[in-house]
Amino acid sequence: MSTLKPIHVIGGGLAGSEAAWQIAQAGVPVVLHEMRPVRGTDAHKTEGLAELVCSNSFRSDDPEANAVGLLHQEMRSLGSLIMAKGDANQVPAGGALAVDRDGFSNAVTAALEAHPLVTIERGEIAGLPPEEWSSVIVATGPLTSPALAEAILTLTGETSLAFFDAIAPIVYRESINMDVAWFQSRYDKVGPGGTGKDYINCPMTREQYEAFVDALIAGDKTEFKEWEADTPYFDGCLPIEVMAERGRETLRHGPMKPVGLTDPRNPDIKPYAIVQLRQDNALGTLFNMVGFQTKLKYGAQTAILRMIPGLENAEFARLGGIHRNTYLNSPKLLDPTLRLKAMPRLRFAGQITGCEGYVESAAVGLMTGRFAAAERLGRPIEPLPHTTALGALINHITGGHIETIDEGPRSFQPMNVNFGLFPPLAHAPKAEDGKRLRGPAKAVARKKALTDRARADLAAWLSGGVLPAAAE
C-alpha cells in the first residue's frame, strides 16, 4: 500500500473530513488540505476540521419516517466518521440529532490527525491543483476561496457558482425569561439523548406577531454589493425577513408554526406563533434560534429579536449573519462518480456539488472518498441503487435533476435529501385487510415501505464486493 500515490482532498469541512477518512480507511494515503488558519473565512471561528458554522443539528434521526434519518443510518452502516463523532457528542434535541459543536469538531480533528495514512496540510490552494496530483477531491463548500472558485468557473465554462446563505443567532440560556418560555419538543417527541422537553418555546399573541413582522420588514438589513444583487437564496435557508416579505403568514407556517406545542401556564389558549430555541452545546448554556437565519444588521437584530416574549433581555453569544455559498451546475458538469467531465482527475464533494445540509454534505463526501479510493485501487464501485438515500441524493446531483427547458437561469438548486428524490414504489402499500390506505396512514406506510426498500437494497449493494465499511 505504501507505493500508492496519495489522493488530495481540498477542504477540511464535513465533506472533506469524511472523504479523507474513507480514503484512508480503504488503505490509500490521503493529503487533506485546509486553508484555515493561514487564510480565514467570514463564517469560521476556529481552525478545527468539520467546524459547524450554522446550526448544530443534523436534523431528524428517525430512519423509518424521515429521509435524513435514513441517510444517518446508511452512513453509519458505511463507517461514517461524521456520524460516529456526531453520536459521541450529541446534545438533547427531541427527535433530532444535535451535537456539541466544539466537542464534535475536536473529535473529528483528533481522529484524522491520529490516522497513519492521513497528512494534514494547512494553506490555501489558490487556483487549480498541480497537474501531478492525479486524483483530487474538491470539498471547499460554501466558502471556497476566490482564486479556486475562479479557476473552477473558468474550467467549467459556467457564468456563476454562487448563492447566499444566512446563519442564525445564538442566545445565552441564562438570559431567557423562563417565566414566559417553557421547555417542550414538538408533539413531546423523544429523540436520541432527548426527553421530549428539549426546545425552549417563546409564545406570541397575534398582536405581538404582527408587530414583529412589521419590524422585520422595516429593519435595517445588510446591503449587497452591486455584483452580488442577483445572487439567489436557497429556499431551505431563507432569512426570516425575506420570509416575512413574502407574506405576513409565511413565518407562522415555517419556523414560527405553533402546532404540537402547549403553553403549560395557559393550556387553553393557543399561541398565535411560537419561536423555538434548541440547545447548542453540551453544557446547555447556549441555545440557537431555530430557523432564524437573518441578514439584519446587528443593531436592528438585537432590538427586533428582543421583541419576542421570553427574549426581552436576551444576550447573544453570536448574532446572525450572511455568507456567500458556492455550488456547481452538477447535473451538467459531473459524471455519476462525481468526477468533473472537463477534467476527470478532479472530483467534487459536499455543498459545492449542490447538496444542502451538514449530513448531505458529509454523505456526498463519504461516497466521493470511496469512489476515489476504489479508482486508485483498481476496484471500481457499482453505482449506488437510486432507491437508497445515498443513491437518491447522488442521482439528483449528477443527473436526477431535470434542467429548465426555457432560456431562463439554470434551474438546478441546492437540495436536502427527501423522499421526493426516491424512485416511486412498484406497488402502493395496503392495509392488513388488503384495502387501500388513505390520509395520514397512507403517508406513514409509504415512508416505511421506502425505507425498508432502501435498507434491503443497500445491504445487497454492500454484499456485492464494494470497499469494506470503515471501522474505528
UniProtKB/TrEMBL annotation:
Positions of the MnmG N-terminal domain: 7-378
- Source organism, top-level taxon: Bacteria
| Annotated HAMAP family | TrmFO
UniProt entry tagged with the keyword ATP-binding: no
Pfam families reported in the protein's UniProt record: GIDA
Q: Which family does it belong to?
A: Belongs to the MnmG family. TrmFO subfamily.
Q: Which UniProt keywords apply?
A: Cytoplasm, FAD, Flavoprotein, Methyltransferase, NAD, NADP, Transferase, tRNA processing
Coiled-coil blocks: none
Task: Please list the residues that bind FAD.
Answer: 11-16
Cited InterPro entries: FAD/NAD-bd_sf, MnmG-rel, MnmG-rel_CS, MnmG_N, TrmFO
Its annotated compartments are:
Cytoplasm
Q: rRNA processing: present as a keyword of the record?
A: no
The Enzyme Commission number assigned here is 2.1.1.74
Q: Which PANTHER family match?
A: GLUCOSE INHIBITED DIVISION PROTEIN A, METHYLENETETRAHYDROFOLATE--TRNA-(URACIL-5-)-METHYLTRANSFERASE TRMFO
Q: What is the lineage of its organism?
A: Bacteria, Pseudomonadati, Pseudomonadota, Alphaproteobacteria, Hyphomicrobiales
Q: What protein is this chain from?
A: Methylenetetrahydrofolate--tRNA-(uracil-5-)-methyltransferase TrmFO
Task: Name the chemical reaction catalysed here.
Answer: uridine(54) in tRNA + (6R)-5,10-methylene-5,6,7,8-tetrahydrofolate + NADPH + H(+) = 5-methyluridine(54) in tRNA + (6S)-5,6,7,8-tetrahydrofolate + NADP(+); uridine(54) in tRNA + (6R)-5,10-methylene-5,6,7,8-tetrahydrofolate + NADH + H(+) = 5-methyluridine(54) in tRNA + (6S)-5,6,7,8-tetrahydrofolate + NAD(+)
Enzyme class label:
transferase
**Function of this protein?**
NAD-binding protein involved in the addition of a carboxymethylaminomethyl (cmnm) group at the wobble position (U34) of certain tRNAs, forming tRNA-cmnm(5)s(2)U34.
Task: Write down the required cofactor(s).
Answer: FAD
